Amino acid sequence: MKFSVVIPARTLNDHLKENISYLKKVRYYDFEVIIVLDEFIKINFGLKETRFRVIESGPVGPAQKRNIGARAASGDVLAFLDDDAYPQPNWLRSAANVFLEQPDLYALGGPAVTPPNSEFMEKMSGMIFESYLTGGSTIYRYKIAKRVEIDDYPSVNLFVKKEAFDSVGGYDVNYWPGEDTKLCLELLKKYNRKFLYDPSPVVYHHRRELFKPLLQQIARYGKHRGYFARVFPKNSRKLQFFVPALFFIGIIFGFILSFIIPKIWMVYSAVLFLYVILVFAESQKVTIDQKDFKAFRYMFLGILLTNLTYGLNFISGFLFKPSSKLRSIDDGSGNYIGG
Fold first, then answer.
1. pLDDT of residue 326
2. Which SUPFAM superfamilies does its entry note (predicted)?
């Protein structure tokens, strides 16, 4: 089984350099790496390294870049990896074992965990993603969890058999973010069954730092999930995606109504008190785990702002189609600016 690793990026950046260094350490006998950049850049992969190549795409979005990479791929399975993520050495071997175990499997998702050497503010963002109060039932995306059937998965660590990918026309270039959700939806329609999340093919995924970069990312995700909940109900119209929006509406209108109808104040206060207790407990747990007292205030405020930001933008996306805009990059490092 041959894997084609497809990595979209705007340009060669610090994270991509790190990614390449770890891909060279992957222990698997047959794979290629296709890096798709806005403009062709000659990268020194090493004298004897022939598995890597760079393709120029022009200034297009991640969906177009992944499609370009997929068309150039010669592998049996496409392994989609973000430029700001990097794999464990057994990444492809672990994925191959799952596909060999289940020959009719058309796609596979693996965990994208926070890098162990992350700076404090990046690590706090990772902890927020891993919390049930923000990630709900999808926290397996961000940590090692048990195997489960899924119907949606992000492209940071997503394997799709090339035959299956080609049969649905690849990624829909009209969406970003959310192109991966649309791809999964088309695969669900074609095969009429879910695919797998398995904890064994692990990658490490850098997080946006608290507060502004993370919240910018959360806002973008919220808008597109809200829009998808309206137009693609099969794998986006789930209660867990609506909860932050209901929470946001409850916070605003519950406060106003409590002055008009005094009895509502007791219910409003009780629900708000319960929420504060849950956030307090989660923040305290992370503080103990991290052995760092300052983690408490960052987690408490981070969870609250994440819920409100996602909720507000989910409502916005549900009502109005969001625009897709390429993210800006830093001229020096080549890394993305903001969220």
1. 62
2. Nucleotide-diphospho-sugar transferases
